[in-house]
Amino acid sequence: MNDGSIAAGSAVSRLPPEVQARLAELKASLERTLGDDLEGLLVYGSAARGGYRDGQSDVDVVVVLRDASRERLDAIANALKLARYAARIEAMILTADEIPRAADVFPLLYDDIRRCHVLLSSRDPFSALVIDEKNRRLRVEQELREAQIRLRRAVVDAMGADEALRGAVVRKLKQLRGPLHALLGLHGIACDDDLGAVLAEVGRLLGVDVAPLKRAHEAPGAAHAALTALLARAVHDVDRLDEREGAR
């Protein structure tokens, strides 16, 4: 990263110039303040996948510290606050030794980061990370069942208003990209991890018509029905995976 650019050739290098500048400032500040105590700085999420939308998306970063003491956190607080307010750069702070130990409780998040991230500084603590398949399946089921429960509550809260239902469906679809992509992975199906590709592939796998989901803004009622059907099939499917695993 010494050529004056931010991750040349990656999706990060295609971010708006002002966002790249804020990332470069954050990188320089953390390196200057922490020195060897900065174990890693990387970008993940939509900014790393190429799905960043100016004015709508956050820029998700992981700051990996050798030591997450109060002293270290206080030292970087101002830089992180400036980055957040200047360019919606949201930092998750981890320590290097906790990443492999926490992979069992954050399997989908860590797997998402491992699959697609851009290293800005120091070393890469996610490249060799191993995610246990059982932990991945359990987390997929948990997130799908939570989505079912929250979607039902959203319908109640909408009280028949299409605008509220539309917002609930659109938000839920974005949140489901990760667990649905992971469900495909459990079946050994390779797929791009953008939302459209994931929905299309999951629809084929589960035999659900996902076309109404693309028209959620125009027809929220039909989109809700399609999403409800998709979630029901997905939960049933991931349950069957557990049964097959138990029968081995």
From TrEMBL:
Enumerate the InterPro entries for this protein.
NT_sf, Polymerase_NTP_transf_dom, Type_VII_TA_antitoxin
What does the record give under GO molecular function? Answer: nucleotidyltransferase activity
Domain of life from the UniProt record: Bacteria
Domain called Polymerase nucleotidyl transferase: residue spans: 38-113
| One Pfam family per UniProt | NTP_transf_2
- Give the transmembrane ranges: none
Q: Which PANTHER family match?
A: NUCLEOTIDYLTRANSFERASE, PROTEIN ADENYLYLTRANSFERASE MNTA-RELATED
Q: What is this protein called?
A: Polymerase nucleotidyl transferase domain-containing protein
> What is the native source organism of this protein?
Sorangium cellulosum
